[in-house]
Amino acid sequence: MATAELIEMGMIDVKLGDFIEVGEGSKGTRLVVDVLEASLTGDRVNATLATNDGADWGTVSEDGTVMSLDVRFTLKTDDGEFIYVEYGGRASLTEGLAATAPTFQTGSEKYKWLNRVQAVMAGQVNLDTKQLIYRLYEVKVTPEEGLV
C-alpha cells in the first residue's frame, strides 16, 4: 500500500483582520476574515504577503465550534517571485487549532517544484491577538511495489 511521510517545509505566520459575519446561508454561517500579514519561512523558500487580496471565506458549524476554511493569498519571495497559496481545512473554534491542506501555484522556474507539492499544515490561533501560526509539511507519497 502506498505510504505517506510528512517533510517539514517551514512555518507560516498570519495576522488576521476582523471577522465579518455575512450571515446564515445554505452551508452555514459565513465569516470573512482578511489576511492582513503573512510570512513563510523555511529552508527552501522565504516570502511575505504580496497583495491585500488574502482572506478566509469560512463557514461555521451550526453549534459554532468548527469553521470550514477556504483561504487564498499571494506571497512574494525574498528574491521577487510570486506564489499563490490556497487551502481548505477545519478549525476548532473552541481549541484554537486548525488542520489544512494547501497547494501552491507559481510561474517561477526556481520555485516550480511547489506546483507539484501537496502540503498539510497544523495551526494554532490566538483569537485575542489574531495571530495564526502554521507548521507546514510536504506530503511525500511512496508507492508499494506490487500493490497494483
Summarize the structure.
This protein has no helices and nine strands.
> H/E order of the elements?
EEEEEEEEE
Number of strands: 9
Mean pLDDT: 95
Helicity level? under 10%
Layout of helices and strands:
Blueprint: E1 3-25, E2 28-41, E3 46-49, E4 55-60, E5 66-77, E6 82-92, E7 97-105, E8 119-126, E9 131-142
Antiparallel strand pairs: 1-2, 1-9, 2-3, 2-4, 3-5, 4-5, 5-6, 6-7, 7-8, 8-9
What do you see in this structure?
The structure is a single chain. This protein has 148 residues and is mainly beta. It has one domain (3-139): Porin, CATH 2.40.160.20. The protein contains no helices and 9 strands. Strands 1, 2, 3, 4, 5, 6, 7, 8 and 9 form a 9-stranded antiparallel β-sheet that branches. Strand 1 and strand 2 form a beta hairpin. It is globular and about 50 Å long.
List keywords for this structure.
Porin; 9 strands; 0% helix; 148 residues; mainly beta
